[in-house]
Structures are given as structure tokens and as C-alpha cells.
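**User:** Hello, beginner here. Are you able to go through the protein record under this note? It all follows right here:
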Amino acid sequence: MSPIKVVFLLLVMTLSWAPMAKSNFSVLFVNPSLEGEPFWGKVQKITEEAAAQLDINIDVIYGDGNRHIQLAELKKYLDYRASPDYVILMLYPGGAEQTLSMLNNYGIKFITLEQTITGLEKEEIGIPKKRFEHWLGEVYFDNYQAGYDLARALHLSVVASGHKGQVNGLAINGHYGSESDKRNQGAAAYFREHKINLQQTVHASWSKEQAYSKTKRLFKRYPDTHLIWSASDLMAMGAQTAVRQLVKDRSKKVAIGGFDWLSDSLSLIDEDILSASVGGHFMMGGWALVSLFDFHHGVPYWLTNSAITFNLSSITKDNVNEYLWISTTPDWSKVNYRGLSILDTKIKEYDFSPNQLRQRAETIK
């Protein structure tokens, strides 16, 4: 073979190999909830669509809403399956140290979603890359601000209904000591600032059924309640069902809202049954995957940073029309995940925001 042909063949091989250079690594996504659960199901779907677009091999396991089960499933996967290049997961309170130690001992780099660990447990695990060198960082939002924003949206709904005088509220939290506490602290701060009477706070373990039964008891105790702040949309819907059964006067409006932008909650906001939902964080798995794509191909962000943070957005009756398409079945594959990458750009920081969904609505629907 002539030297010219050899050079030509090498050039063809190099060009054909070039696209492969930005693909073919593996990620394990740990869905902390039950298969088919609305919120985490959407997080998983978007993460899988991002993986397909970025040509990343992705596996999924489930934590079934229990730290013991999640830890056992993760251990089983790592013990009996080929080790992934990266893991994306949410830490459960009470199981963070065991999980982080396991992943670190396997030498697998990983990203955590949300800041779910607080207090002494947070002090023990520290920050990414310190005690656990393979913990690249966290992708999370400000739960405190989000809780504050939901409280404000509910208060404004009460004011818009024409109520004057003292506003009385109830709060339904999720688990003890998890991200719901930060949300609740933000709400409590807003209530204090605006002299809203927070009559009682209860925990309902993220359960629609528990929120329903506890609201029935609470509303009988506090019939002059004007708003119910909830740490999730599912619990807000449970509370709303209870109020609808107890309040016979349909002119009496109780402002109820939660978190997650669930499809049913957006429809209920449109129907003026629920008042608000704060969310957009179902994109966080996809955003974490984009950052891993960049890191795998040389972007140094995770070498010098320990977090990607973003703010959530409030949906109320005033802007729900801009987001109703989310409550149908949008084609999440149409999101340009590659367009969110900072690979081969001069950009140093990520600009992830739920507002991007509104800007990209026409292409996603």
C-alpha cells in the first residue's frame, strides 16, 4: 500500500472515530422512590432522555422510598454488576455515611441530588471531595428560599381573594430532618415577617393519604384556616381533598399549595382549586448528567467546584397557562441537553434554571 493511501486510511479512521470520543461511558441513576412515582418518575425520564441524546449508557435502580432498601439495592448492583463510571443519587438521612463510604471504596465518582442531609450527619460527611474524594459535588436548589416563595404565593392568593385581617395557616411537612425542614423554615420566616398565624405544623412523610387524614383532624381543630402550606404537591392534594369534604361553603377559599409541579397539581391550579406549586427541579437529573458528560470530556468544573445550584419557580393562577403543557405528555427528548453543555465553550459556570422550560416550550410540546 502506498504511503498516500496509508495516510488517507488513517485520516478516515481518525475522522470516523472522532464522534465516538464524546460518548460511551456509563452512569447508574438511583431513583430514590418507587417505580412509577410521579415526581421521581419524571426526573428519571428526563435523565434517560438526556443520556440517549448524549450517548451515555444508563442503568436505573430504585430505593423504594426507604434508606435501607436503597443502600441494599445499591450494594447488590455494585457487587454483581459491572461498575459504572459514575453514579447519580439522592442521599437519605440516616444512611448518608454508609452510602458515601461504599461508593468511595469502589472508586466510583458520583454526584448527589438535593441537599437532604442536615445537622450532625451533615457535619460527619462534610463537603464533596474532602472526606470522600470521589464525591464530585451536589446539584441542588435553595429549599429555604423555595419554602419562602411558596408561603408568599399562598399569602398573595389569600389577599387576592379579598380576605382582610388576620391570616391563619397550617403547614404539612415531609420527613423529619430532611430537605422538607429547610422548606418549612423558609415558610416560617415568611409567616413571621408578615404576621401570619401559623397554627400548627405536622409531618406527613410525603404521603397524600397521611396529609388527607391529618388535615381532616387539623381543620376540625382550626376551622378558621386560610392557607395550607405543604412540602409536596401530593400532600397538598391530600389536604385539598380533606378541605373540600369539610368545608360546605364553596365561597370559602383556602389557599393550598406544594412543591414538584406535578401534572395533576398544575391542572388543579388552572381550575382554581389549588393555589400554587413551586418546582422545576425534576430537571436536576438531566442537568447532573450534562455536567458529567462535560467532566468526562475534560471540563474542569467539578475539579474546582463542589456544587451546582439553581432556584425554583412558582406557578400560580397568574402564569399557569405558560406551563400547562407540562401536565400533558411532553416529548422530553426534544430538550437540547447538548445545548446546556459548556464543553468546547468559554463558559465557566452552568446556568440551569426552570425558566428554560418556558423558553423552550414550543420545541418540547
